[in-house]
Amino acid sequence: MARTRNSLETRTKLIEAARDLIRAKGYSATTVDDICHSAGVTKGGFFHHFESKDQLGVAAAEHFSAMAEQLFATAPYCALQDPRDRLFGYIDFRTAMFGYEIAQYTCLLGTMVQEAYSTHPNVREACAAGMTTHVEDLARDIEAAKQLYAPSASWTSESVGYFIQAVLQGAFIFAKAKQGPEVALESMMHLRRYLETLFYPI
Amino acid sequence: MARTRNSLETRTKLIEAARDLIRAKGYSATTVDDICHSAGVTKGGFFHHFESKDQLGVAAAEHFSAMAEQLFATAPYCALQDPRDRLFGYIDFRTAMFGYEIAQYTCLLGTMVQEAYSTHPNVREACAAGMTTHVEDLARDIEAAKQLYAPSASWTSESVGYFIQAVLQGAFIFAKAKQGPEVALESMMHLRRYLETLFYPI
DNA sequence: AATTACATACCAACCGGTCGGTACCGAACA
DNA sequence: TGTTCGGTACCGACCGGTTGGTATGTAATT
Fold this sequence. Notes:
Chain A is mainly α. Helices cover about 75% and strands about 0% of the residues of chain A. The mean pLDDT of chain A is about 95. Chains A and B meet through helix 7, helix 8, helix 9 and helix 10 of A and helix 7, helix 8, helix 9 and helix 10 of B. Chain A binds a DNA duplex through helix 3.
């Protein structure tokens, strides 16, 4: 084993192992030993980088948020001129992700916050922050599209952003429950249909 | 302590304690000791009624499903003649529930299946079954409303039922993350608006 | 008398976290 | 150039407490 003794690399390996395990088993069921074994690090190494399991949860949420931000900031649809097209590009992009394995497209933040919201306040806060940031990013395109296609509509772009995320989170739950994306994909179709009614061409 | 030595009552107390604890802390973080303490039963009593924690999880899912079925089968809106009115009665009824405490209106099935989908197949199956049954019940009104108000629409009533549930599940996640129902309520409003577009009066 | 419905006491495995130690680094100094 | 040195990265044995689950006892019900 070529141990490279790279602090950042080890830390990242721990976080990514946590991300994958928590997405599959949940936060509580994922043990520190699990994470260490999966990352090829010992317990001593783990607690050198994180002072508690909770703090790793927070770090994982932040890491996930950063990854998502980067992913959706560099996706092909971002190059589109029309903000409405970018919004539907986002929807279609996320819909296409349901083609991968469940543990690859589900949201770490939504999974963690369900378990942690009342017992692990730091984790809850980190998840909420990540989700809020993502909605804010999304809401910028929604707002721009609103100015163009529905300037006098009564809804706020922020609430539409949250609605989109709610559908996604619910779709993830059904993908897990049904062990497949079929039902989730139909929900994404309904979501798209709704958004089309919001941004009717002038 | 008035020990009543009533088998069914003890079993129900265990299930309801599990329901409340799991909704607040998740399945894995809820221990058998927790449940026993909360229900006022010892561990011996617990394992007299359930042969494993998993089986309790299954029983809790079934209990929750039965309770929900009863709740939504006897709610005031069920008396309405028009299936479209019943559907919106359901939406408004569920929207109103966001006024209670988080742990009272969130869905045990959605919470459990997030954690259990890959590691506790029996629990996953019980959750999926309960959710499917609920959607089927709901889809009956949707189908009847479709016949009246949108007979030639291309969507299936089942998919609309799942969409409604997806929004609800997502709304629960945001209510937990945000520690309040505001964002969730806005999502319910968007959901209602969408359903209105589906069932436009003839 | 037999069965049911619990309580008590207990277990091995596992949990998050600690701790003393070690391998390795770059900088300072001779 | 070689040596020392303090700090960082990491190891792995260990700890007290907790976990799901069991073995056994006993009082009430049938």
